[in-house]
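Task: sequence design from structure.
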């Protein structure tokens, strides 16, 4: 009998872990940090850009949040999935290509086992998100897909973003981490605008580390500052995220 070669064995980077006794980091075949966890607070969000990936909470009814479905493309250290599962009490799904990443997350980053409200799917995200079971089911989609070089998103085309849009409920939002040169971020924004429309896009100013978080709405809305501030105060009080500070650096892309 002929056996198919396992692509995971030769193509995907080796996963490693480092820590300084306070913060633990995930690496994919290079020194680049691909995710982090405060050892004393394994279900908190330790990186600024990861906190900003939760900005979709400003567009959600607080009482309805726990009834939603969150999906993460690219598990990393599992921070977003853990936060959505443990703190927000959401049904949570992560799609990850590399089985080593999943094993390391379970062993070193306190990722809970699969259960009724948590599922990790080992698959190519580009293919998996086209499966009919996911269409129109996701309230909060987090896209953070980088390889070991961390130079540009692995999936970043207008067609990919159109597939992401198809995942969302009518009130759903996608957040994307863009890391790297400004010109690459502009190209990514153009692809998202083709898929969602310019009026659907909001963006943060880049962090000191160079991460630009972008939000795209399935159904564009333009809440006023007072409404956003009220939501931000709820997010800060309920989940401990610095949401009121976000409003200083988070704006619609199209004026």
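Answer:
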């Amino acid at each position: 009998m002929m056996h198919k070669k396992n692509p995971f064995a030769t193509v995907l980077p080796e996963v490693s872990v480092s820590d300084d006794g306070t913060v633990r980091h995930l690496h994919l075949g290079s020194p680049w940090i691909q995710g982090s966890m405060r050892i004393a607070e394994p279900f908190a969000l330790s990186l600024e850009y990861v906190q900003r990936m939760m900005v979709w909470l400003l567009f959600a009814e607080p009482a309805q949040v726990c009834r939603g479905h969150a999906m993460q493309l690219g598990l990393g250290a599992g921070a977003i999935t853990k936060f959505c599962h443990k703190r927000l009490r959401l049904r949570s799904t992560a799609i990850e290509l590399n089985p080593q990443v999943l094993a390391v997350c379970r062993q070193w980053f306190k990722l809970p086992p699969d259960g009724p409200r948590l599922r990790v799917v080992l698959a190519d995200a580009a293919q998996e998100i086209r499966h009919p079971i996911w269409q129109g089911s996701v309230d909060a989609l987090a896209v953070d897909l980088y390889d070991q070089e961390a130079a540009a998103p692995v999936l970043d085309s207008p067609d990919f973003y159109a597939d992401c849009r198809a995942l969302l409920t009518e009130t759903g939002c996608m957040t994307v981490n863009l890391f790297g040169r400004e010109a690459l971020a502009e190209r990514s924004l153009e692809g998202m605008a083709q898929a969602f429309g310019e009026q659907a896009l909001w963006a943060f100013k880049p962090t000191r580390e160079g991460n630009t978080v972008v939000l795209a709405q399935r159904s564009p809305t333009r809440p006023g500052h007072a409404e956003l501030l009220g939501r931000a105060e709820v997010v800060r009080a309920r989940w401990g995220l610095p949401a009121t500070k976000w409003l200083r650096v988070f704006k619609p892309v199209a004026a």
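Residues 197 and 248 are 24 Å apart (CA to CA).
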